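quick one, 81 residues, struct below
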Amino acid sequence: MLNNDSVYERLNRIFRDVLDDDAIVLRAETTAADVEGWDSMANVQLMLGVEQEFGVHLSAGQMQALHNVGDLVTAIVRRAA
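---
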């Protein structure tokens, strides 16, 4: 079973890889506006990385309902359970 800490650790790796920025440190309140390079194209790559890493699928509607990284973590934990 996933816990929030392990999800954040894995998400940080995905974000750092996709956005090519090893300084990224995600927090629950982090949004796209807080991370340089996190635009709509990067978001597609990020979500594909999330789905591959965690073996979950998020519909377009579910993705649109995410307001910050904390929401994403909650969605991942719920779907992976």
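The longest helix spans residues 4-19.
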